[in-house]
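INFO worker-7 received task bundle
INFO bundle size: 2
INFO processing item 0
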Amino acid sequence: MEYKCLSDFLFKGENKNINISVSKNSPVNASLSLDGYKHSMVQIIALTIALKMKTVIVNPPIVSDTYVFIAIINELGGTAKIYNKRLFIDASTICNANIPFFLGKCIHGSMYLCPALLIALGKFEYYGSGGCQIGDSIDSHNRPFSHIASVIECFNHKISIESNRIIGNFGDNSDITELDIKNFSYSSEDLSGPLVGGATKTALLLSVNKQKFIIKNPYLKTDVYDMIDFLRLIGKKIDISDNSIVCSGNVMASSNQYIEFNLTQCISEIITYSTLALINNTNLTFLDLNLKSASNLNGNLNCSKELEHYAS
């Protein structure tokens, strides 16, 4: 395992000052290939684990988080590896519901393995997340987990919070049919605050084994759209209308074949590089750009024509 990618400051969450020197050069035309969106990858991994299936993520981001997830999957009893720049995941043999302490605390995305393992194995044990800590004083300045726990409890599963770990157990949720994400918003008027995205993703994860579930007022963003595309790919019927996501039907029967999935690229990266190209009056070609990335910008920014010009 490539533990050498990890460092004390990543694990402990300590600040580290880095000096960056920028030299001015004449801008030139360029071609650029972008990896898939990291936050989407986290959710596809979680869904793969929840359903104990085999998935190939065609364009994973080659960053330290990816190698941490590979290590966690292998520790849980599955098999994961990078081969030819693709991420292969076989979660069919996962048998351990204890998310490793050190690895879980290296990244913040490990929290989404809790609902995934709850579906796959009926339980989980978790010691907290690492990475960037965005919590306020209520969360002791740690990344919030309470909204994840609340969604799990809304599905009638059991959460036990101890001094150094969180334990989850599967409950009878046969009569739970809907969840309103506005319950996690800082405003009653619209969706706001840092919890609505995580609540939406957790609800989608937990709905995979239900015949029908409605998520009201979901926070729709790139990683949620990728989750929806993946669920549709494996047989779930997903309808988005009237400010709701309606999940129905069953996933297709498991097989020994890997399901291939192509992540959307990071919208922020596309905007950043496109802006730099426009400012410097240079041509930038995005290689293998998932045009869904550009279409997700429509309605948010008036730059879809420029992206269409620069994307190939």
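INFO item 0 finished
INFO processing item 1
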Amino acid sequence: MNDFQAIADRVEIEALRGEFTDAAMMRDRPRLASLFTPDGALRMPDIPVEQVGREEIRAGGELLQSQWDFFVQTTHPGTILLDGDTATGRAYLQELARTLDGRQGLNYAVYHDRYQRTAEGWKFAERVYEVRYLDTSPLAGTAPHAARGSVTSPAAATATPAPAASFADPASAGQMERAAAALRAGGFAAEILDDAAAARVRVKELVPEGAGVLTGASETLRLSGIEEDINGGGQYDAIRPRVLAIDRAAGADEIRRLVACPEFVVNSVAAVTETGSLVLASGSGSQLPANAGGAAHAVWIIGAQKVVPDLNTALRRVEEYALPLENARAQAVYGMPSAVNRLLILNAEPRPGRGTVLLLREAIGY
């Protein structure tokens, strides 16, 4: 290899590392994943996270960034050792981050890299992230609202937020596939079905006859017929009819125990993100414990219009679209307004096999 080729290789590898930081900061996970070889690996043992292959790197990164309030990464050049069509190196970085659940801190870390020359240029064969210093003291700063979304370009950074009416539009096939992949990366089982009729059949396959089942207060379940199948069909130990028959004052403790830990909970959500998060809202909070982990098994049926890009958009959908519709229903049925008094966000399922998400290609519910 001549000196000019070595210089060119070093410049290209340095640009590759810069592109990684830019993609991370701009929350452009497809671009970040494309910087790896098809079987490349991103390993972060201190977190711990290990992602192998471009799809895992993309989906895992989107799951991680859905939890950020803000994230800032600064990368400094390190070593590059060339060896023909391969190379090794290190890059040094400083990061500031705060998550939506309040975790925050400053850290200094090292990327230990392996690079591979490909037909597309130099790519990462492996990045291993090693934390050298971590300070979890509260951070005094804040981030502008736009920085919390999925900003991938200057135009996106200044774009007007989507109007609430767009929250009724079905997601594209690509959006559905991205959401399903991210959910699977987070430990959920995720299936894409054509419509509510298919979901009705699938629920009967997933929930064995005789099982104790709690249904959520969901327009999706009502409109699809799944609510009637479970609560009125006689095939299951349906919990909601039992709860409605108990005096709410004298039997409050019994109601609380029944709804908190059923064998199965079948419900919908207010939104699901392309980064793999489920968002449920409630006025009383009574149905949330079962969804959060109290139920041994959970099945969520979700219409195509509920798929949104990220967590911030999901929260907007709850407030701007779902709440007004639920408020009108509550006024008509109960004579009182609704409110988002409790909010549950499921970013991952730590018990593989517990939670199944049925994404429908049709819009149903709200």
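INFO item 1 finished
INFO post-check item 1: The chain is about 35% helix and 30% strand.
INFO post-check item 1: The CA atoms of residues 3 and 9 lie 10 Å apart.
INFO worker-7 idle
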